Fold this protein.
Amino acid sequence: MNTLLPTEFLDTLVRFVICVIVNWSIIFCLYYRKSHRRDFSFTFMMMTVAIFFLVYFMMGMDRGKATMGVGLGLFGIFSIMRYRTDSMPVREMTYLFVIICLAVIHAMATESVEEPSIGSDTMAMSYAELLTVDAITIVCLYICEHFLKAQSTKLIQYDRIELITPERRQELIEDIKKRTGLNVTHIDIGAIDFIKDMAMLKVHYQGQNNTVNSVLKLYKNELKEF
């Protein structure tokens, strides 16, 4: 009996649904709950959809199959692009890499149990194997998010530059703790302006309420008075 869609494409849609559900769980149950960044969450979901279908059609079209190197080359493309707008923190880059990896795996996998031919661009994986890979990835992310202490950072323009000397580092930390209320662990000293008696400090501290509070980029208009 003829069907509207080929069986192979129906299998692809099933894998796509699984991929979306898994990545949605990673993004909104692990990433967004801690960072509350809607912009990155939107980017991750759209990357899931775009990468999945891009890899699927590149690997499966009869008019020009691509090799696995094309799929791996996608990582190089996005690492070069780096979204030439704003810099992306390491945590977000890690989640982006995981999202792309899972999208590529789901797009290249197939439920066929036949022995793959030489030069085949698909991976014979059952749904059980695919879900196992997804489960391992989610568990690893969960462990890293909940059991590893993540430090947050802030950039501070500091006025008491007499405390920036190495021998008075502990006094500097105590002063920052007192004035900001942050549980400071260590401080990196950046630019120093002796004319204005100002110094740029990067303060590392233990985050509160299980949130991420990182400085992505310091724009020029934020340094006009420095």
